[in-house]
Protein backbone atom coordinates (compact mmCIF):
# COMPACT_ATOMS: atom_id res chain seq x y z
CA UNK A 1 0.00 0.00 0.00
CA UNK A 2 1.02 3.52 -0.48
CA UNK A 3 0.87 6.51 1.79
CA UNK A 4 2.15 9.95 2.54
CA UNK A 5 5.84 10.68 2.70
CA UNK A 6 7.46 13.72 4.27
CA UNK A 7 11.19 13.89 4.97
CA UNK A 8 13.53 16.87 5.00
CA UNK A 9 16.83 15.05 5.04
CA UNK A 10 18.67 14.19 1.88
CA UNK A 11 17.61 10.92 0.29
CA UNK A 12 20.28 8.24 0.12
CA UNK A 13 21.05 6.70 -3.22
CA UNK A 14 19.53 3.25 -3.02
CA UNK A 15 19.73 1.05 -6.08
CA UNK A 16 17.68 -2.10 -6.23
CA UNK A 17 18.97 -4.67 -8.70
CA UNK A 18 16.13 -6.13 -10.67
CA UNK A 19 17.64 -8.51 -11.12
CA UNK A 20 9.17 -16.73 -28.67
CA UNK A 21 6.37 -18.43 -29.97
CA UNK A 22 2.91 -16.82 -29.81
CA UNK A 23 0.46 -18.89 -27.81
CA UNK A 24 -3.28 -18.45 -27.60
CA UNK A 25 -2.93 -14.71 -27.18
CA UNK A 26 -3.49 -14.51 -23.44
CA UNK A 27 -6.82 -12.89 -24.12
CA UNK A 28 -5.08 -9.86 -25.66
CA UNK A 29 -4.65 -8.86 -29.25
CA UNK A 30 -1.83 -10.45 -31.17
CA UNK A 31 1.18 -8.50 -32.35
CA UNK A 32 4.15 -8.94 -34.58
CA UNK A 33 6.69 -7.13 -32.45
CA UNK A 34 5.58 -3.82 -33.97
CA UNK A 35 4.29 -2.41 -30.70
CA UNK A 36 0.64 -3.10 -31.52
CA UNK A 37 0.14 -6.24 -29.43
CA UNK A 38 -2.03 -6.05 -26.32
CA UNK A 39 -1.08 -8.03 -23.22
CA UNK A 40 -3.36 -9.29 -20.47
CA UNK A 41 -2.44 -9.09 -16.80
CA UNK A 42 -4.05 -10.23 -13.54
CA UNK A 43 -5.54 -7.50 -11.37
CA UNK A 44 -8.17 -6.71 -8.77
CA UNK A 45 -10.67 -3.88 -8.53
CA UNK A 46 -9.30 -0.82 -6.70
CA UNK A 47 -10.88 0.36 -3.47
CA UNK A 48 -11.84 3.81 -4.74
CA UNK A 49 -12.40 5.71 -7.99
CA UNK A 50 -9.06 6.47 -9.61
CA UNK A 51 -8.59 10.03 -8.37
CA UNK A 52 -4.83 10.48 -7.87
CA UNK A 53 -5.18 11.97 -4.40
CA UNK A 54 -7.70 9.33 -3.34
CA UNK A 55 -5.71 6.19 -4.19
CA UNK A 56 -3.43 4.77 -1.51
CA UNK A 57 -3.52 1.07 -2.35
CA UNK A 58 -1.57 -1.00 -4.84
CA UNK A 59 -4.27 -1.97 -7.31
CA UNK A 60 -5.40 1.56 -8.03
CA UNK A 61 -1.81 2.77 -7.90
CA UNK A 62 -0.87 0.33 -10.64
CA UNK A 63 -3.34 2.02 -13.00
CA UNK A 64 -2.32 5.54 -12.03
CA UNK A 65 1.28 4.65 -12.89
CA UNK A 66 0.12 4.02 -16.45
CA UNK A 67 -2.32 6.93 -16.75
CA UNK A 68 -0.27 9.76 -15.27
CA UNK A 69 3.14 11.37 -15.28
CA UNK A 70 4.05 13.90 -12.63
CA UNK A 71 6.80 16.42 -12.03
CA UNK A 72 9.07 13.55 -10.99
CA UNK A 73 9.16 9.87 -11.86
CA UNK A 74 10.78 7.12 -9.84
CA UNK A 75 13.40 5.26 -11.84
CA UNK A 76 12.04 1.76 -12.61
CA UNK A 77 15.40 0.21 -11.68
CA UNK A 78 16.62 2.28 -8.73
CA UNK A 79 13.51 4.20 -7.52
CA UNK A 80 15.52 7.43 -7.67
CA UNK A 81 13.35 10.54 -8.13
CA UNK A 82 14.09 11.94 -11.61
CA UNK A 83 12.65 14.94 -13.47
CA UNK A 84 9.66 14.11 -15.65
CA UNK A 85 7.42 17.12 -16.29
CA UNK A 86 9.64 19.27 -14.08
CA UNK A 87 11.96 21.47 -16.08
CA UNK A 88 13.44 22.55 -12.77
CA UNK A 89 12.58 22.82 -9.09
CA UNK A 90 14.48 25.65 -7.43
CA UNK A 91 14.90 26.74 -3.83
CA UNK A 92 17.37 28.75 -1.79
CA UNK A 93 16.00 27.98 1.65
CA UNK A 94 14.27 24.53 1.45
CA UNK A 95 10.97 26.23 2.24
CA UNK A 96 10.12 28.34 -0.81
CA UNK A 97 10.19 26.51 -4.15
CA UNK A 98 9.78 27.70 -7.72
CA UNK A 99 8.66 24.97 -10.10
CA UNK A 100 8.89 25.21 -13.88
CA UNK A 101 6.81 22.77 -15.91
CA UNK A 102 8.18 21.53 -19.23
CA UNK A 103 6.45 22.90 -22.29
CA UNK A 104 4.82 20.61 -24.85
CA UNK A 105 3.02 18.20 -22.52
CA UNK A 106 -0.70 17.58 -22.95
CA UNK A 107 -3.40 15.39 -21.53
CA UNK A 108 -4.76 12.69 -23.80
CA UNK A 109 -7.75 14.93 -24.65
CA UNK A 110 -5.38 17.54 -26.12
CA UNK A 111 -5.48 20.01 -23.23
CA UNK A 112 -2.08 21.47 -22.36
CA UNK A 113 -0.51 20.53 -19.04
CA UNK A 114 0.34 23.79 -17.30
CA UNK A 115 1.22 25.07 -13.88
CA UNK A 116 -2.50 25.51 -13.26
CA UNK A 117 -3.03 21.77 -13.91
CA UNK A 118 -0.87 21.01 -10.89
CA UNK A 119 -2.08 23.78 -8.58
CA UNK A 120 -5.76 23.01 -9.13
CA UNK A 121 -5.11 19.30 -8.59
CA UNK A 122 -3.21 19.88 -5.36
CA UNK A 123 -5.86 22.24 -4.01
CA UNK A 124 -8.51 19.64 -4.74
CA UNK A 125 -6.46 16.88 -3.13
CA UNK A 126 -5.90 18.90 0.03
CA UNK A 127 -9.50 20.04 0.54
CA UNK A 128 -11.33 18.48 3.46
CA UNK A 129 -14.69 18.42 1.71
CA UNK A 130 -13.26 16.35 -1.16
CA UNK A 131 -12.44 13.48 1.22
CA UNK A 132 -9.23 12.47 -0.51
CA UNK A 133 -7.30 9.76 1.33
CA UNK A 134 -3.94 11.28 0.39
CA UNK A 135 -4.78 14.82 1.49
CA UNK A 136 -2.12 14.29 4.14
CA UNK A 137 0.50 14.56 1.40
CA UNK A 138 -0.14 18.29 1.13
CA UNK A 139 0.22 18.88 4.87
CA UNK A 140 3.50 20.77 4.64
CA UNK A 141 2.18 23.37 2.21
CA UNK A 142 1.26 26.64 3.89
CA UNK A 143 -2.47 27.02 4.41
CA UNK A 144 -3.20 23.32 4.80
CA UNK A 145 -4.68 23.98 8.24
CA UNK A 146 -7.31 26.18 6.58
CA UNK A 147 -8.32 23.80 3.78
CA UNK A 148 -8.03 20.65 5.90
CA UNK A 149 -8.44 21.51 9.60
CA UNK A 150 -8.20 18.78 12.23
CA UNK A 151 -11.75 19.63 13.29
CA UNK A 152 -14.60 21.69 11.91
CA UNK A 153 -15.12 22.83 8.33
CA UNK A 154 -12.50 24.10 5.95
CA UNK A 155 -12.30 27.89 5.90
CA UNK A 156 -10.44 28.26 2.60
CA UNK A 157 -10.77 26.67 -0.83
CA UNK A 158 -7.12 26.92 -1.84
CA UNK A 159 -3.72 26.47 -0.23
CA UNK A 160 -2.22 29.88 0.47
CA UNK A 161 1.23 28.43 -0.22
CA UNK A 162 0.47 27.74 -3.89
CA UNK A 163 0.71 30.55 -6.45
CA UNK A 164 0.56 30.31 -10.26
CA UNK A 165 3.13 32.80 -11.55
CA UNK A 166 3.10 31.97 -15.25
CA UNK A 167 1.73 29.52 -17.77
CA UNK A 168 4.40 26.99 -16.83
CA UNK A 169 5.58 28.24 -13.44
CA UNK A 170 4.23 28.17 -9.92
CA UNK A 171 5.59 28.66 -6.42
CA UNK A 172 5.19 26.54 -3.33
CA UNK A 173 5.63 27.91 0.18
CA UNK A 174 5.90 25.30 2.93
CA UNK A 175 5.10 25.85 6.59
CA UNK A 176 8.62 24.70 7.53
CA UNK A 177 11.83 23.61 5.85
CA UNK A 178 11.59 20.41 3.84
CA UNK A 179 14.80 19.73 1.91
CA UNK A 180 13.58 16.66 0.04
CA UNK A 181 10.16 18.02 -0.91
CA UNK A 182 11.03 17.63 -4.62
CA UNK A 183 11.59 13.89 -4.13
CA UNK A 184 7.96 13.40 -3.09
CA UNK A 185 6.62 14.89 -6.33
CA UNK A 186 6.66 11.60 -8.23
CA UNK A 187 3.90 10.21 -6.03
CA UNK A 188 0.52 9.95 -7.74
CA UNK A 189 -1.19 12.37 -5.35
CA UNK A 190 0.84 15.17 -6.95
CA UNK A 191 -0.26 14.33 -10.52
CA UNK A 192 -1.75 17.09 -12.71
CA UNK A 193 -5.44 17.04 -13.60
CA UNK A 194 -7.29 18.30 -16.69
CA UNK A 195 -10.14 20.80 -16.56
CA UNK A 196 -12.74 18.11 -17.25
CA UNK A 197 -11.92 16.58 -13.87
CA UNK A 198 -13.50 19.65 -12.28
CA UNK A 199 -16.05 20.61 -14.96
CA UNK A 200 -17.60 17.15 -15.40
CA UNK A 201 -16.33 15.10 -12.50
CA UNK A 202 -18.71 12.18 -12.96
CA UNK A 203 -17.69 11.78 -16.59
CA UNK A 204 -14.02 11.83 -15.60
CA UNK A 205 -14.57 9.20 -12.91
CA UNK A 206 -16.30 6.97 -15.46
CA UNK A 207 -13.39 7.30 -17.90
CA UNK A 208 -10.32 8.97 -16.36
CA UNK A 209 -8.17 11.21 -18.56
CA UNK A 210 -4.49 11.58 -17.75
CA UNK A 211 -1.19 12.49 -19.35
CA UNK A 212 0.62 9.13 -19.20
CA UNK A 213 1.51 6.62 -21.93
CA UNK A 214 -1.87 4.85 -21.71
CA UNK A 215 -5.53 5.84 -21.86
CA UNK A 216 -8.56 4.08 -20.41
CA UNK A 217 -10.55 2.39 -23.16
CA UNK A 218 -13.16 0.74 -20.94
CA UNK A 219 -13.75 -0.55 -17.42
CA UNK A 220 -16.28 -3.06 -16.15
CA UNK A 221 -15.94 -3.43 -12.41
CA UNK A 222 -15.47 -7.03 -11.42
CA UNK A 223 -14.37 -7.96 -14.94
CA UNK A 224 -11.69 -5.95 -16.73
CA UNK A 225 -10.09 -2.59 -17.34
CA UNK A 226 -8.71 -2.08 -20.84
CA UNK A 227 -5.94 0.47 -21.30
CA UNK A 228 -4.57 1.34 -24.72
CA UNK A 229 -1.37 2.98 -25.88
CA UNK A 230 -1.69 6.70 -26.38
CA UNK A 231 -0.01 7.36 -29.71
CA UNK A 232 0.28 11.08 -28.99
CA UNK A 233 2.10 10.65 -25.70
CA UNK A 234 4.96 13.20 -25.65
CA UNK A 235 7.22 11.45 -23.12
CA UNK A 236 10.32 9.40 -23.85
CA UNK A 237 8.94 6.36 -21.98
CA UNK A 238 6.38 5.50 -24.66
CA UNK A 239 4.51 2.21 -24.46
CA UNK A 240 6.27 -0.60 -26.32
CA UNK A 241 2.97 -2.48 -26.67
CA UNK A 242 -0.52 -1.69 -27.89
CA UNK A 243 -2.13 -1.78 -24.48
CA UNK A 244 -2.88 -3.74 -21.33
CA UNK A 245 -6.05 -5.59 -20.39
CA UNK A 246 -6.19 -5.77 -16.59
CA UNK A 247 -8.34 -8.79 -15.80
CA UNK A 248 -10.04 -9.02 -12.42
CA UNK A 249 -9.41 -12.23 -10.50
CA UNK A 250 -10.84 -13.07 -7.11
CA UNK A 251 -8.46 -16.03 -6.77
CA UNK A 252 -4.85 -15.77 -7.86
CA UNK A 253 -4.68 -19.55 -8.27
CA UNK A 254 -7.17 -19.14 -11.11
CA UNK A 255 -4.97 -16.44 -12.60
CA UNK A 256 -1.96 -18.75 -12.47
CA UNK A 257 -3.94 -21.56 -14.08
CA UNK A 258 -4.97 -19.18 -16.88
CA UNK A 259 -1.34 -18.19 -17.37
CA UNK A 260 -0.31 -21.81 -17.75
CA UNK A 261 -3.22 -22.45 -20.14
CA UNK A 262 -2.26 -19.54 -22.39
CA UNK A 263 -5.28 -17.46 -21.44
CA UNK A 264 -3.33 -14.80 -19.55
CA UNK A 265 0.01 -13.14 -20.26
CA UNK A 266 1.20 -11.83 -16.91
CA UNK A 267 0.69 -12.66 -13.23
CA UNK A 268 2.40 -10.44 -10.66
CA UNK A 269 1.05 -12.26 -7.61
CA UNK A 270 2.27 -15.85 -7.77
CA UNK A 271 0.14 -17.90 -5.34
CA UNK A 272 1.93 -19.54 -2.45
CA UNK A 273 0.54 -22.92 -3.49
CA UNK A 274 2.45 -22.70 -6.79
CA UNK A 275 5.84 -21.65 -5.47
CA UNK A 276 7.08 -25.25 -5.46
CA UNK A 277 6.29 -25.55 -9.15
CA UNK A 278 6.76 -22.09 -10.60
CA UNK A 279 10.43 -22.45 -11.54
CA UNK A 280 9.85 -25.69 -13.41
CA UNK A 281 6.62 -24.35 -14.93
CA UNK A 282 8.04 -21.09 -16.26
CA UNK A 283 11.83 -21.32 -16.25
CA UNK A 284 13.34 -17.93 -17.01
CA UNK A 285 9.85 -16.46 -17.39
CA UNK A 286 9.60 -16.42 -13.59
CA UNK A 287 10.79 -13.25 -11.84
CA UNK A 288 11.80 -13.24 -8.16
CA UNK A 289 13.51 -10.03 -7.12
CA UNK A 290 13.93 -8.02 -3.90
CA UNK A 291 11.29 -5.37 -3.32
CA UNK A 292 10.49 -2.72 -0.75
CA UNK A 293 7.61 -4.65 0.79
CA UNK A 294 6.94 -5.80 4.35
CA UNK A 295 3.99 -7.85 5.58
CA UNK A 296 2.63 -7.34 9.08
CA UNK A 297 -0.30 -8.11 11.34
CA UNK A 298 -2.01 -4.92 12.44
CA UNK A 299 -4.54 -4.32 15.22
CA UNK A 300 -7.71 -2.23 15.66
CA UNK A 301 -6.67 0.16 18.41
CA UNK A 302 -10.10 1.77 18.18
CA UNK A 303 -11.46 -1.44 19.74
CA UNK A 304 -11.22 -1.24 23.53
CA UNK A 305 -10.12 -4.88 23.71
CA UNK A 306 -6.95 -4.03 21.80
CA UNK A 307 -6.42 -0.40 22.68
CA UNK A 308 -6.30 -0.74 26.44
CA UNK A 309 -3.10 -0.53 28.47
CA UNK A 310 -1.32 -3.84 28.95
CA UNK A 311 -2.31 -5.29 25.60
CA UNK A 312 1.18 -4.61 24.29
CA UNK A 313 2.18 -7.76 26.18
CA UNK A 314 -0.48 -9.77 24.38
CA UNK A 315 0.60 -8.41 21.00
CA UNK A 316 4.25 -9.13 21.77
CA UNK A 317 3.31 -12.61 22.96
CA UNK A 318 1.54 -13.27 19.67
CA UNK A 319 4.65 -12.12 17.81
CA UNK A 320 6.77 -14.58 19.79
CA UNK A 321 4.30 -17.37 19.02
CA UNK A 322 4.90 -17.09 15.24
CA UNK A 323 7.60 -19.34 13.77
CA UNK A 324 8.63 -17.07 10.90
CA UNK A 325 11.52 -19.28 9.77
CA UNK A 326 9.32 -22.32 9.32
CA UNK A 327 6.55 -20.42 7.53
CA UNK A 328 8.83 -18.61 5.09
CA UNK A 329 10.65 -21.87 4.27
CA UNK A 330 7.64 -24.18 4.01
CA UNK A 331 4.90 -21.93 2.66
CA UNK A 332 6.86 -19.35 0.70
CA UNK A 333 9.80 -21.48 -0.46
CA UNK A 334 12.24 -18.81 0.72
CA UNK A 335 10.66 -16.05 -1.37
CA UNK A 336 10.11 -14.22 1.93
CA UNK A 337 12.62 -13.38 4.66
CA UNK A 338 11.63 -13.26 8.35
CA UNK A 339 11.29 -9.65 9.42
CA UNK A 340 13.41 -8.29 12.24
CA UNK A 341 12.30 -4.67 11.95
CA UNK A 342 9.46 -2.62 10.41
CA UNK A 343 11.19 -1.41 7.21
CA UNK A 344 12.91 -3.37 4.42
CA UNK A 345 16.44 -4.58 3.65
CA UNK A 346 16.31 -2.78 0.29
CA UNK A 347 16.96 0.43 2.21
CA UNK A 348 20.34 -0.80 3.32
CA UNK A 349 21.92 0.38 6.55
CA UNK A 350 22.58 3.80 5.03
CA UNK A 351 18.87 4.19 4.30
CA UNK A 352 17.69 3.19 7.78
CA UNK A 353 17.29 -0.59 7.75
CA UNK A 354 18.50 -2.01 11.06
CA UNK A 355 18.54 -5.78 11.20
CA UNK A 356 17.46 -7.11 14.58
CA UNK A 357 15.85 -3.90 15.81
CA UNK A 358 12.80 -5.94 16.85
CA UNK A 359 15.01 -7.97 19.19
CA UNK A 360 13.55 -10.88 21.17
CA UNK A 361 10.03 -9.67 20.35
CA UNK A 362 10.38 -11.24 16.90
CA UNK A 363 12.10 -14.43 18.07
CA UNK A 364 9.96 -17.58 18.22
CA UNK A 365 9.66 -18.75 21.82
CA UNK A 366 6.44 -20.60 22.77
CA UNK A 367 7.08 -20.45 26.51
CA UNK A 368 7.76 -16.71 26.47
CA UNK A 369 4.74 -16.18 24.19
CA UNK A 370 2.37 -17.96 26.54
CA UNK A 371 3.70 -16.09 29.58
CA UNK A 372 3.39 -12.66 27.92
CA UNK A 373 -0.17 -13.30 26.78
CA UNK A 374 -1.18 -14.45 30.26
CA UNK A 375 0.48 -11.40 31.85
CA UNK A 376 -1.41 -9.15 29.44
CA UNK A 377 -4.76 -10.58 30.44
CA UNK A 378 -5.16 -13.20 27.73
CA UNK A 379 -6.65 -13.13 24.26
CA UNK A 380 -9.82 -11.01 24.04
CA UNK A 381 -12.71 -13.45 24.16
CA UNK A 382 -10.23 -16.31 24.34
CA UNK A 383 -9.61 -16.29 20.57
CA UNK A 384 -8.24 -14.12 17.78
CA UNK A 385 -9.52 -14.07 14.21
CA UNK A 386 -7.03 -12.87 11.59
CA UNK A 387 -8.95 -11.04 8.86
CA UNK A 388 -7.64 -11.12 5.28
CA UNK A 389 -8.93 -10.71 1.74
CA UNK A 390 -9.67 -14.08 0.16
CA UNK A 391 -8.97 -13.03 -3.44
CA UNK A 392 -5.20 -13.31 -3.03
CA UNK A 393 -2.80 -15.93 -1.67
CA UNK A 394 -3.21 -15.26 2.03
CA UNK A 395 -5.11 -18.30 3.32
CA UNK A 396 -2.08 -20.60 3.48
CA UNK A 397 0.10 -18.29 5.48
CA UNK A 398 -2.73 -17.12 7.74
CA UNK A 399 -3.53 -20.76 8.52
CA UNK A 400 0.16 -21.40 9.14
CA UNK A 401 0.42 -18.40 11.49
CA UNK A 402 -2.64 -19.60 13.38
CA UNK A 403 -1.26 -23.13 13.62
CA UNK A 404 1.97 -21.74 15.02
CA UNK A 405 0.10 -19.63 17.59
CA UNK A 406 -2.18 -22.53 18.53
CA UNK A 407 0.77 -24.88 18.99
CA UNK A 408 2.66 -22.34 21.08
CA UNK A 409 -0.33 -21.75 23.35
CA UNK A 410 -1.44 -25.38 23.46
CA UNK A 411 -4.92 -24.42 22.28
CA UNK A 412 -6.11 -25.40 18.80
CA UNK A 413 -8.87 -22.77 18.92
CA UNK A 414 -6.79 -19.79 20.00
CA UNK A 415 -6.40 -18.48 16.44
CA UNK A 416 -8.46 -18.88 13.27
CA UNK A 417 -8.52 -17.18 9.89
CA UNK A 418 -11.33 -14.82 8.93
CA UNK A 419 -11.51 -14.45 5.13
CA UNK A 420 -13.29 -11.47 3.52
CA UNK A 421 -14.37 -11.82 -0.11
CA UNK A 422 -12.39 -9.27 -2.11
CA UNK A 423 -9.65 -6.73 -1.52
CA UNK A 424 -12.20 -3.93 -2.04
CA UNK A 425 -14.48 -5.51 0.60
CA UNK A 426 -11.51 -5.86 2.94
CA UNK A 427 -10.48 -2.23 2.47
CA UNK A 428 -14.04 -1.07 3.04
CA UNK A 429 -14.14 -2.83 6.40
CA UNK A 430 -10.84 -1.22 7.34
CA UNK A 431 -12.02 2.23 6.31
CA UNK A 432 -15.23 1.84 8.30
CA UNK A 433 -13.31 0.62 11.40
CA UNK A 434 -15.10 -2.70 11.49
CA UNK A 435 -12.14 -4.84 12.55
CA UNK A 436 -12.38 -6.52 15.95
CA UNK A 437 -9.07 -8.37 15.87
CA UNK A 438 -5.75 -8.58 14.03
CA UNK A 439 -5.78 -8.15 10.28
CA UNK A 440 -3.43 -8.63 7.36
CA UNK A 441 -1.42 -5.52 6.60
CA UNK A 442 1.44 -4.75 4.30
CA UNK A 443 3.45 -1.81 3.09
CA UNK A 444 4.86 -1.25 -0.35
CA UNK A 445 7.26 1.67 -0.33
CA UNK A 446 6.71 4.81 -2.35
CA UNK A 447 10.46 5.39 -2.49
CA UNK A 448 13.40 4.08 -0.43
CA UNK A 449 13.37 6.15 2.76
CA UNK A 450 12.89 4.82 6.28
CA UNK A 451 10.40 7.62 6.89
CA UNK A 452 8.12 6.16 4.24
CA UNK A 453 7.84 2.87 6.14
CA UNK A 454 6.96 4.57 9.43
CA UNK A 455 5.07 7.85 9.16
CA UNK A 456 2.16 6.93 6.85
CA UNK A 457 1.46 3.72 8.78
CA UNK A 458 2.03 4.62 12.45
CA UNK A 459 1.83 8.41 12.78
CA UNK A 460 -1.36 9.71 14.41
CA UNK A 461 -3.99 9.95 11.64
CA UNK A 462 -1.40 8.85 9.08
CA UNK A 463 -2.84 8.26 5.62
CA UNK A 464 -2.45 4.47 5.92
CA UNK A 465 -2.76 4.09 9.68
CA UNK A 466 -5.67 1.66 9.37
CA UNK A 467 -5.43 0.47 12.98
CA UNK A 468 -5.55 4.08 14.29
CA UNK A 469 -2.59 3.55 16.62
CA UNK A 470 -1.40 6.79 18.21
CA UNK A 471 1.61 7.55 20.36
CA UNK A 472 2.92 11.02 21.26
CA UNK A 473 6.52 9.87 21.64
CA UNK A 474 6.50 8.28 18.18
CA UNK A 475 4.97 11.41 16.60
CA UNK A 476 7.48 13.67 18.34
CA UNK A 477 10.47 11.66 17.14
CA UNK A 478 9.15 11.56 13.58
CA UNK A 479 8.62 15.33 13.63
CA UNK A 480 12.17 15.82 14.86
CA UNK A 481 13.55 13.49 12.21
CA UNK A 482 11.65 15.28 9.45
CA UNK A 483 13.06 18.61 10.57
CA UNK A 484 16.62 17.28 10.58
CA UNK A 485 18.75 18.07 7.52
CA UNK A 486 21.62 15.76 8.54
CA UNK A 487 20.90 12.30 7.12
CA UNK A 488 22.66 10.30 9.84
CA UNK A 489 20.94 12.18 12.63
CA UNK A 490 17.56 11.91 10.91
CA UNK A 491 17.89 8.15 10.50
CA UNK A 492 18.84 7.80 14.16
CA UNK A 493 15.68 9.64 15.18
CA UNK A 494 13.53 7.52 12.88
CA UNK A 495 15.03 4.39 14.40
CA UNK A 496 14.21 5.69 17.87
CA UNK A 497 10.63 6.14 16.65
CA UNK A 498 10.72 2.59 15.33
CA UNK A 499 11.73 1.40 18.79
CA UNK A 500 8.53 2.97 20.13
CA UNK A 501 6.62 0.87 17.58
CA UNK A 502 8.50 -2.17 18.86
CA UNK A 503 7.92 -1.48 22.55
CA UNK A 504 4.19 -1.11 21.92
CA UNK A 505 4.10 -3.82 19.22
CA UNK A 506 1.92 -1.47 17.18
CA UNK A 507 2.00 -4.12 14.46
CA UNK A 508 3.66 -7.53 14.28
CA UNK A 509 6.33 -7.67 11.56
CA UNK A 510 6.11 -10.97 9.70
CA UNK A 511 8.42 -11.04 6.67
CA UNK A 512 10.02 -9.04 3.90
CA UNK A 513 8.53 -9.89 0.53
CA UNK A 514 10.17 -10.30 -2.84
CA UNK A 515 8.49 -9.11 -6.01
CA UNK A 516 7.36 -12.07 -8.10
CA UNK A 517 5.83 -12.45 -11.52
CA UNK A 518 5.36 -15.01 -14.25
CA UNK A 519 4.65 -14.33 -17.89
CA UNK A 520 3.76 -16.02 -21.16
CA UNK A 521 5.99 -16.79 -24.13
CA UNK A 522 4.36 -13.91 -26.02
CA UNK A 523 6.07 -11.36 -23.81
CA UNK A 524 9.62 -10.10 -23.56
CA UNK A 525 11.44 -7.32 -21.69
CA UNK A 526 9.33 -7.99 -18.59
CA UNK A 527 10.59 -6.55 -15.29
CA UNK A 528 9.30 -5.46 -11.92
CA UNK A 529 10.28 -2.09 -10.51
CA UNK A 530 11.53 -1.78 -6.89
CA UNK A 531 7.91 -1.36 -5.81
CA UNK A 532 7.07 -4.82 -7.22
CA UNK A 533 4.92 -3.38 -10.03
CA UNK A 534 5.39 -4.53 -13.65
CA UNK A 535 7.00 -1.88 -15.84
CA UNK A 536 4.14 -2.19 -18.31
CA UNK A 537 5.27 0.43 -20.81
CA UNK A 538 8.51 -1.47 -21.48
CA UNK A 539 6.90 -4.88 -22.11
CA UNK A 540 6.96 -6.12 -25.70
CA UNK A 541 4.39 -8.47 -27.23
CA UNK A 542 5.33 -10.83 -30.06
**Biggest β-sheet: count, sense, barrel?**
5 strands, antiparallel
Report the helical percentage.
25-40%
By secondary-structure content and strand pairing, the structural class works out as alpha+beta
Q: Distance between the terminal alpha carbons, to the nearest Å?
A: 32 Å
Output mean pLDDT.
Answer: 91
Radius of gyration: 23 Å
Low-confidence spans: pLDDT under 50, at least 5 residues?
Answer: 1-26
Shape: globular
Say how many strands there are.
19
Strand content: 15-25%
Report the total helices: 17
Can you characterise this structure?
27% of the residues lie in helices and 20% in strands. It has helices at residues 58-67, 115-126, 144-147, 195-199, 201-206, 252-260, 278-282, 304-307, 311-320, 324-330, 348-351, 366-375, 395-409, 423-431, 450-458, 472-483, 487-504; strands at 38-43, 72-74, 81-83, 86-91, 96-101, 162-166, 169-173, 214-220, 224-229, 243-248, 266-267, 286-298, 336-338, 384-389, 415-420, 439-444, 507-519, 523-524, 540-541. The strands form six sheets. Strands 11, 12, 13, 16 and 17 form a five-stranded antiparallel beta sheet that branches. The longest helix is centred in the C-terminal third of the chain and has 18 residues, at 487-504. The radius of gyration is 23 Å and the shape is globular.
